[in-house]
Amino acid sequence: MASTVYRGLGPRIAYERRIAGLTQSGLACDAGVALGTIRKIERGERGVSDAVLSTVADALGIDPCRLLPDLERPDDRVHQAMPGLSSVLAQFEAPEDGPCRDLRALRGAVAAVVSHRLSAQYTRIARTAPGLLAELCRALHIAAPGDRPAVAQLLVDACRAADAVAFKRSAKDLSARLIGLMQWAAPQAHEPLMDATTAYVRAEIHLAARTHAAGLRALEQALDRTPRNDEPEALAARGALHMRAAVVAGRARNCAAATVHLDMARALGDRVKEGVYRGTAFGPDSVRVHEVSVAVSLGDSNLDRALRLAREWKPPRDLPAERRSGFYIELGRAQLWAGRPDAAFESLKVARRIAPQHAREHRWVQEDVATLRRLKRADAESLSNFAEWCHAGASL
Asked: Which terminus of the chain has a lower count of CB atoms within 10 Å, N or C?
């Protein structure tokens, strides 16, 4: 497939380069691109191929979409990755022969896609996930007995990253198959807390299908199976399950269950430092984000609680980008329902600045922007541009 060539990106690249504190020479060196090429791109004398765009973005430490005009869709690469992921899933138990890196290299590759998931850089995941999953399936197939648990855990983590892409793009069948592969690999990791991770992710299926009562039962059963000790990893695993159970209960409008699980999550969050535990952000700040989410899901009188919390607290910058973006998306919905459309639009713009791809693909963003356009309460031109950027109304 021919690489796309983008035009007019020079000023954006120059701006991001300066923000990163790089000279043209430094960017060229870090990206592995000729200095003359960087100079011509920034002067607008040549276009930027898809491959050069990716390497330049990597060198700048940002997602490629930050460099593109609003109406370009670099995340089309997500769709291009779907057949490759389907191929891996069709043969994971008997993978084709191919190269396999050593365990140390595989750990580094998986750590990278986990980082991209937490920062909502889905196009980067799409670029590497099919090949990485195929390699991990081969590695697990040929691993020595002593290495199998470690490889299985890496496969679970990589599947979760790929699932984040599939789920955000509403590829629900593919998402369910990736979660199935996680569930197949998890027991081979011989890690007691791995079950909590898969249960946390599998709740997505119930959220998408709106089978909230079944999802809540599954999460509560997972909580019963999760080890109860005072190790931070175990506390965080239980706390994350309670957070997700609170959200699922909120979507079911089960206020009592949502309150119980949120209280449990808060109590566990107070016992650990905010951080990423086995791929899931958990701690006092993550619980506060979920307080807003639950309040919005419950609606009605609970909206005041969401708005009050947002006035008193904002997610810190060291919280993963996807979670911070989610906070402002939830806040925007609360503001919209509370009759504050201008404030809602400002919150959605903040979510976009934090994690563009997360905001762009979020169904609530698309729904709420479509509603805002009908209300015509914000600046017409900027609102219309935002709606076109996130394809508001396309999936409604």
From this structure: N
- First-to-final CA distance of the chain: 31
User: Which burial class, exposed, middle or buried, applies to 229 when counting CB atoms under 10 A from its CB (0-12, 13-18, 19+)?
Assistant: exposed
d(CA 323, CA 274) in angstroms, rounded, equals: 12
Q: Name the helix (H) or strand (E) containing 230.
A: none
The vertex-260 CA angle with 255 and 264, nearest 5°, equals 145
Q: Quick: pLDDT tens for 286-342.
A: 999 999 999 999 988 888 989 999 999 999 999 999 999 999 999 999 999 999 999
3 state SS of 6: strand
Are 246 and 290 contacting, i.e. CB atoms less than 8 angstroms apart?
A: yes
Last residue of a domain, one of 22, 49, 69: 69
Do 81 and 161 lie in one domain? The reply is: yes
For residue 380, what are its two tokens? 């017409």
d(C-alpha 246, C-alpha 373), whole Å: 31
- Burial (CB count <10 Å: 0-12, 13-18, 19+), residue 101: middle
Burial class of 184 by CB neighbour count within 10 A (0 to 12, 13 to 18, 19+): middle
- What is the SS3 assignment for 176-202? HHHHHHHHHHHHHHCCCCHHHHHHHHH
Residue 62: give the domain boundaries: 1-69
> Which one of 319, 336, 360 terminates a domain?
319
Q: Let me know whether 37 and 139 are in one domain.
A: no
Domain count, the chain: 4
Question: What pTM value is reported for the model?
Answer: 0.81
Name the helix (H) or strand (E) containing 5.
strand 5-6
Placement of tokens 């940002």 in the chain = 62
